[in-house]
């Protein structure tokens, strides 16, 4: 499902797991091969290694950058990407923090190995997340009418992230 785009990340033979090589002072992203602009779609993301200081899950257009210097929230750093930083529970878009997420009292931080379900609703232009089968609410509204791709960005060396497409989300 991943599209290999830069040398600091390689895709394992299963095609669903990326491995970020240990490269100092670099943030690297990886985008799925297939994007969506119609319908409702869900995919699962599992962070299988340490998060480091920034670990972001979300979506991007083809124009979003996939590599930069330093340890930053690359996914969400411009107008072409939207992400949830699992480390500090902030939403990122257009280089700005868009607030805390999820909007729950004393929300626990993401634990390595927990399943994150990402829900892209192209009909309503929203992006939502679930953690361990609990719906966390809409994270972003007013997404553009463009093809959007599942994307992650990572800073920690030797971390691995798996992504599996699930199809249309099941409501209820």
UniProtKB/TrEMBL annotation:
Residues 1-170 form the B30.2/SPRY domain. Pfam families: SPRY (PF00622). Signal peptide: none annotated. InterPro entries: B30.2/SPRY, B30.2/SPRY_sf, ConA-like_dom_sf, FBXO45-Fsn/SPSB_families, SPRY_dom. It comes from the Eukaryota. SUPFAM superfamilies: Concanavalin A-like lectins/glucanases. PROSITE patterns: B302_SPRY. PANTHER family: F-BOX_SPRY DOMAIN-CONTAINING PROTEIN 1 (PTHR12245:SF7), SPRY DOMAIN CONTAINING SOCS BOX PROTEIN (PTHR12245). This is B30.2/SPRY domain-containing protein.
């Amino acid at each position: 499902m991943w599209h290999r785009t830069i040398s600091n990340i390689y895709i394992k033979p299963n095609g669903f797991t990326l491995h970020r090589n240990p490269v100092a002072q670099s943030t690297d992203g990886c985008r799925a091969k297939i994007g969506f602009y119609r319908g409702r779609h869900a995919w699962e993301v599992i962070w299988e290694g340490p998060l480091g200081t920034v670990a972001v899950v979300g979506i991007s257009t083809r124009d979003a950058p996939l590599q930069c210097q330093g340890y930053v929230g690359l996914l969400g750093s411009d107008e072409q990407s939207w992400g949830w930083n699992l480390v500090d529970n902030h939403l990122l878009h257009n280089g700005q923090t868009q607030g805390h997420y999820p909007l729950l009292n004393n929300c626990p931080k993401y634990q390595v190995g927990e399943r994150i379900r990402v829900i892209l609703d192209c009909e309503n232009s929203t992006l939502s997340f679930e953690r361990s089968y609990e719906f966390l609410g809409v994270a972003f509204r007013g997404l553009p009418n463009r093809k959007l791709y599942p994307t992650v960005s990572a800073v920690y060396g030797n971390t691995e992230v798996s992504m599996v497409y699930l199809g249309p989300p099941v409501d209820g």
